[in-house]
């Protein structure tokens, strides 16, 4: 068990300690740290005895001290609650209200939803309210999720490795399941429920058919049983060729009745073991995965065949739009749109098309994917990456809230005022299904996510999936308070560090719209020079196109015309360098190194300044963190300080290696006063990391 103390206990300890608080905290408790002493817990009454309602009550008791006013947890249908005629009608299945009422003649805080899941979310909302400095007396919370499916995607393999995972092995111990149910599975579900996540895809989208065999279905069922009372459903990634590999069929062609029958029987088998199974996630015809295109069938044919298999059970299919092919000479950024846009309106109504936030692949910055708003007759689920494949793995501090909200807040240009969030939450077209997926950053590390600050990205994903209109800063402040306590200096400093941290990664890895500049395979560290990989679009040189004269990918009408996939005023603004935000300039335009920038510097000087700004930001975070030494427990403080030192070193490495390379291409000197790279280009090119984590061959 984690070695934590009550918030009050922690504060009193910090008062008597002159130096750093000495208690150890391994981060296991995540943001659910407020713990009441067993004999001094709040008085909580549950009007009902469902497993979920019981959990809601026990979470409140566990977190809140006896000084908290009496609390009643209930559903709207409890007779005494019904008599209050509270506004439950707009809360849907999962919403909640938390307010002071007089119930049976007594003043209490009522926590209630239309379902016990809503009540559970309300319990966690009350805990959050109080842990972030809110008062019990004035509590009045009311919220319903705007997005229906709020789902983690685990890229976890059956051998317990995690593709792009930087927090240790998979938390699913497939080998000992279904017999052994690690208590950690409960803590996982509890953490997810506390931020509103209601689904999890257990296995990697690069799927093995074995996960659909009877033994693995039983293992998934054991996890589903643990997760159910917490309001979480289990989903599986399906390997499209499973009918061949497991069923002995000659084909996986979705139009073949034998194939459809195989999937139907497989779905029936899964639902016998997991009655509330959520459905399938599919990566098809992408990066070597099998799919309907192998047979000349369309993505819609494939998705609809699987959708028919789960339909009678209430299941859904999340079909990924992350497709590109080396045989396709079209700009990689255009391929998913070209393939999927014409299919709009042809998907079954229990299919969502799952689209990455940008058109390439989770880069530190990408413009929003042009499919958002372009497929009005199809529910589009957005896929974010919580694990930081391209943002420094677990060791770099990069709070992704600003990345997520930048995309969600982007105007699609399709309809006046329409944002990506409007498309994702289904509001734009009144879709009955809506969803947000986050590629998990969770592993068997004691602190779950590889670092304390990485926990904030899991938290931010959940909070935004519930309400895509929240601000990244508001989420950061809540997380900081729930994670480190309500000391004002700590919250302000931690929030300030977090808010600029993603931009710092953009700056030191390649700003101004550059992307995909990392080394091969593992994606750790710089490799802008790489140009010899088999697939053209795997080479960084494909993306930056730098030469002596200029840099950037011309995606205007004179180039690949990816700009043409955007709509209205957005397409118009991306079409010209003068109207493209400088943060995305080189994504859309190839420009001379001498181009004048808003700063008054030329493009080359500006790029150099960004690298330096990114490195300086990390050094500043180190100073800010140093200032909190006496206020944070030793274990979390030290690990973060060590990681910040790693990040500072690696930010300089990114900067130096990149500048050495750009100078070899543009033959320009560094601006006056700018520090030269520490080594020559040849040295940077020689660096190898054969054992970097998260890389699956
Ligand atoms: C699961 C990128 C990653 C792959 C990942 C893929 C995807 O290419 O590098 O590891 O595969 O995206 O999203 O399917």
Automatic annotation (TrEMBL):
Cellular-component GO terms for this entry: extracellular region
Enzyme Commission no: 3.2.1.131
Enzyme's top EC category: hydrolase
Similarity comment text for this entry: Belongs to the glycosyl hydrolase 67 family.
UniProt-listed GO biological process terms: xylan catabolic process
Domain Glycosyl hydrolase family 67 C-terminal: start-end pairs: 450-673
Residue ranges constituting the Glycosyl hydrolase family 67 catalytic domain according to the UniProt record: 131-448
Signal peptide positions (record): 1-24
Keywords noted in UniProt: Carbohydrate metabolism, Glycosidase, Hydrolase, Polysaccharide degradation, Signal, Xylan degradation
One example GO MF annotation: alpha-glucuronidase activity
Source superkingdom: Bacteria
Known catalytic reactions: Hydrolysis of (1->2)-alpha-D-(4-O-methyl)glucuronosyl links in the main chain of hardwood xylans
Domain Alpha glucuronidase N-terminal stretches: 67-126
Active-site residues annotated for this sequence: 287, 361, 389
Protein name in UniProt: Xylan alpha-1,2-glucuronidase
Subunit structure: Homodimer.
Matches recorded under InterPro entries: A-glucoronidase_C_sf, GH, Glyco_hydro_67_aGlcAse, Glyco_hydro_67_aGlcAse_N, Glyco_hydro_67_C, Glyco_hydro_67_cat, Hex-like_dom2
